[in-house]
Amino acid sequence: MAAEQQNVIHNTKKQIIKTARKLFSKYTYLGVSMSDIAKKLHITKPALYYHFTGKAEIYKKVLDDAFNGFSLSIAEAAKEKTGSRKLYKVIKNYLDFGLKEKNLIDALMLKLSPADPQIRKQIIQIKKQIVNLIQPIVEEAFADSKLKNKIDIEMVTLLLISTMNGLLLEYSMLKEKIDTEKISKQIITVLF
Amino acid sequence: MAAEQQNVIHNTKKQIIKTARKLFSKYTYLGVSMSDIAKKLHITKPALYYHFTGKAEIYKKVLDDAFNGFSLSIAEAAKEKTGSRKLYKVIKNYLDFGLKEKNLIDALMLKLSPADPQIRKQIIQIKKQIVNLIQPIVEEAFADSKLKNKIDIEMVTLLLISTMNGLLLEYSMLKEKIDTEKISKQIITVLF
DNA sequence: TAATTTACTTACCGTTCAGTAAGTAACCTT
DNA sequence: AAGGTTACTTACTGAACGGTAAGTAAATTA
């Protein structure tokens, strides 16, 4: 049987994704070369091509991985009791997650230069899923607000997501510390 | 005299900056090569090195150019009469400018990979100047708001700028049209 | 134990990039 | 008219990149 062998393959593959995820998160897609990934794993570059078809495939898997973690983090926020508490937690968890996984935010916001069309498709897919996760929570939070009839929920959701992405890029550039709790509270204050 | 000659130099230099500005705005710093710039001008690459010391210097001049245009656009907004009208105009002009000069927004938000430290310095400088342009207008707009004592003007300014940058990156990725008037009004509605 | 598959390595290819050395036609100065 | 400057071009370098061809030691299968 190939069970044990497959386990080995699996582990190496997982290691590659894990390492690539860290590197892509610290730098950018274009800023990380296949050699960089290989070097960090103490293997050679062609070994990567044994496990994956190329750089794009590795990146795709990294994005999948990161988005799964993100979904869990948002799902957890939705467990709060009131609408505005939920929204507060979503904002805070989004920011906390984004700080650790700069890679995902980068992917959602930045061009990959001669963008691989498949990756582009995947990213657009992820963006839609994020909206789908967050929009109901925004809606619930505004359900009993005075603003309810003056706002376009879809647009406010977009504004909120853009604000968080903008903040994360802002803080990933300047390397100041970010108090996600304070910022999340301030956003809630301004919104209600 | 070298007056006419200098004029020729000046014009070519200006042409290079103008062309580079367009290209950097359509793609990114790393996505535009010296050859690309030269080709678009129907000159050869080394001709660029006759006028500038390298790619970084060209980019620096492009950023200067773009920021000057931006400042004018914000100064114009400050001519409005009421505080909230000023803020509305700032938001709208910021978004309109950013749509045309994606390059500037990119620079403010994205890494340049092996970031040239001089360019980094310049970008941080520009970011500060933008805050200095916008913060007084935010302050004025909130002067007679109920929220006045509940908010941190500095943080709200940061939030606003992040929101606009986030929006601009969002829309530069998806190539949908953006109704800057509607968005600006929605932001003002949410804020007051 | 012989054949096969797995998980790699060494050595290399083609391309693209920023940047440079050396030459040159047109113009200006003296 | 000679010499110098300006504004380039042609031809090139060296490094980095994604990716591949060919070989190989160790483990698995038959």
What does this structure look like?
Two copies of one chain form a homodimer. Chain A is mainly α. Helices cover 77% and strands 0% of the residues of chain A. Chain A has helices at 3-26, 34-41, 45-51, 55-77, 83-100, 102-109, 117-142, 153-173, 180-191. The longest helix of chain A is centred in the C-terminal third of the chain and has 26 residues, at 117-142. Chain A binds chain B through residues 27-28, 30-31, 109-111, 113-114, 124, 127, 147, 150-152, 155-156, 158-159, 161-167, 169-170, 173-174, 182-183, 186-187, 189-191, and chain B through 27-28, 30-31, 109-111, 113-114, 124, 127, 147, 150-152, 155-156, 158-159, 161-167, 169-170, 173-174, 182-183, 186-187, 189-191. Chain A binds a DNA duplex (30 and 30 nucleotides) through helix 1 and helix 3.
What are the SSEs and their pairings?
The structure is a homodimer of 192-residue chains.
Chain A: H1 3-26, H2 34-41, H3 45-51, H4 55-77, H5 83-100, H6 102-109, H7 117-142, H8 153-173, H9 180-191
Helix pairs in contact in A: 1-2, 1-4, 1-6, 2-3, 4-5, 4-7, 5-6, 5-7, 5-8, 5-9, 6-8, 7-8
Chain A binds a DNA duplex (30 and 30 nucleotides) through helix 1 and helix 3.
